[in-house]
Amino acid sequence: MNRDAPSSARLQSLLAQIISLTEKGELHWERQVNSAHRFARWNNHLLIIGPDAPAADTAIPRYLFITPFDSPTCIEVSSGDEQLGPSVLKLVQTVEAASRNEPPTDPFSLTEDILSRLDS
User: Fold this and answer.
1) Which of 23, 74, 103, 115 is 20 to 30 A off residue 97, Cα-Cα?
2) How far apart, in whole angstroms, are the C-alpha atoms of residue 26 and residue 50?
3) Which pLDDT belongs to residue 12?
4) How far apart are CA 35 and CA 33, in angstroms?
5) Rounded to an integer, what distance in angstroms lies between the CA atom of residue 79 and that of residue 65?
């Protein structure tokens, strides 16, 4: 992917921050019901790691998809990226280790909190 050096540096820094937060347990990753993708909510953004496959299977391309909750814009970084691919793979391994024992959740389930916000 063609991108300028400052953008690559910012994305590299972002990936390092996400990895660090995950390793410290400060960023909580979940697995969606009926899906093996991992997701996390961070700074009003949805982070998605995919596709589902053991981290040891390095032949399968991986991605980190980031989208703000209040905008249709997004960022996607692939393990096939020459500069950022190794960081994506490290993040996949870190997330897999951190969320190994997490039960699946339904991020789209209706809760009393959500219904109360809509009822206003």
Assistant:
1) 74
2) 20
3) 92
4) 5
5) 12
